[in-house]
Hints:
The protein is of the alpha/beta class and 381 residues long. It has helices spanning 3-32, 82-88, 141-144, 148-177, 203-216, 218-222, 231-241, 254-265, 280-288, 305-313, 338-351, 374-377; strands at 271-276, 292-299, 302-303, 319-324, 354-357. The chain has a 5-stranded mixed beta sheet, sandwiched between helices. A hairpin with a 2-residue loop joins β2 and β3 (302-303). α1 packs antiparallel against α4, α2 (82-88) packs antiparallel against α4 (148-177) and α8 (254-265) runs parallel beside α9 (280-288). It starts with a helix and ends with a helix.
Amino acid sequence: MDQEIANTLGELERKLRELERVLSGIGRSAGAGDAPSPTPAAPPVAATAPPAAPAPPPTAAVTPQSAPPAPGLSHRPGASRVVDEAVEQVGGGSYRLPDASPPASPYPGIGSSPGAATDAPAGASAHLTTPAPQGRRPPPAAERAPSAAELLRFRDRLERTARELTHDYDELLGRITYAAVPTQTGPAISFARGAPSLDIVDVPGLRDAAVRAFESDPAGTTAYGTSIGYPRLRAWIADRHGVEPERVLVTNGSMQADAFLFESLVRPGDDVVVERPSYDRTLLSLRARGATLHPVELQHDGIDTDALAHLLATGQARPKLAHIIPNFQNPAGYTLSLAKRETLLGLAAEHDFLVFEDDPYVALRFSGESLPTMLSIDPGR
Length: 381
């Protein structure tokens, strides 16, 4: 593992744990109407070794100004230092994290390796602390206590910070799991997103289509339109899939379609069958809904329908939904065979669940025959 990435991930994990503890404490304090006391000591943010000497030194506070920046984040003002800047907004005094036990790292070795550990003396605790101005006595504790409004503003800033750090964490984790292989034959082709290379995008054709749209339907092109999509586009999609236009809803990408579908069908604790592996953002959306995921392994011709049948027959899962990417599956690249499509629909009918046919790549075939969609085989299921 790249040591710089390991160090950065360790720093991000510590920051995220700090944020979780601060947000938890602020939520309890704001709910009770009391400001947190600035005096109690906080537990260490990162695990520290026990002191070697019989009498350990007093607990030391590591200030944001003296803490070393995480490698790889020092050039990003919105990453490693944003938590420290947020802390400085609270009353100008010091704010110690509420007492909480740090959660175990979901990635063994990350955050506990020598390169990722906090460089604090043995027995020291890491706190978020801002120093008092030089030459002035700190105000009494009662005067330093932040108000409920200040705590809520601070919490809002930290929540935004948590989202930013989570994004950075996911990005760095992807660099470890799917490390890029250097090539000497030409520029790199990124497979990180489902975005085509510009050299295969028909830019002149898109420009001409836009001109035709403005000429043939200027009112529809410039108007707000309906909430379920441009009527002419919905009619074209309906004709392509052999359904009524009333059954077509145009969304702003697949993630919005996911959100609508999951909000309608999935409740906390509901079982959902997914492929293993599958698209990570869909899994995140399902987990956010509180769904219980049941991953089923992929084979070269798609999901293992025998394993799914066993899962259903033994009562291990009673799904509301099965999320399936049938063509050129992301990330495995497999295509669900016709026989398995029919088997999957038969299981859905027998056990009364719906199939989410997530099919963004159906038109990308370069060879062979296209397979019928599961929608065309069983429109009701």
